[in-house]
Amino acid sequence: MSRRRPRPPREQPSTAVFVPNPKLKLLDQCREALRFWHYSYRTEQTYVDWIHRFIRFCRDHAPDPADGTSTRRRWRHPRDCGEVEIKEFLSHLASDRHVAASTQNQALNAVVFLYREVLNGDLGEFSNFVRATRPARLPAVLTTEECAKLFASIRGRCPRLDAGRPVGAATRSRVPQRLSIGLTSTASMPAARMACIPRSVSS
User: pTM of the predicted model, to two decimals?
Assistant: First the structure.
């Protein structure tokens, strides 16, 4: 009997760690890390912009070393900041700037990327910041009775057809306008692009 050789133990997948060039400026280090992780160019621009805003916020809200209570404008490296400045920055966006929830999440992702992938630091706990409220979105849909009243007030067969097409086919309001313009200019339209219209509608 042939003996099977024991399989070697599987190695755990190693997580790649990227260290930016320390000789570069901070924003250039962010760009280098974003390009290493294959982020899109649009995401790179957005993240770098939010990181720049976070640095300026830390500059404008730096505590005065004389008393520790008042603030004074002075540059601080994000490595010298922590979860307190992150919470204040995100709360400032929601309460003072009145940004949308998606915009606040975008700023949060940029700051998290800065500390985890560029500075390789521990963020700590900062989940209890002021969240941006999501507006209530009410559906702008007519009821069956409202649609019946709308169609009853429209005179003529073709206008009623133009009004019923977006409701029945769930299209946009400009689609009937484009179709009407295309039907009126059929003289210069190629034969391959002309559509047949029922006689009951065209008459």
Answer: 0.59
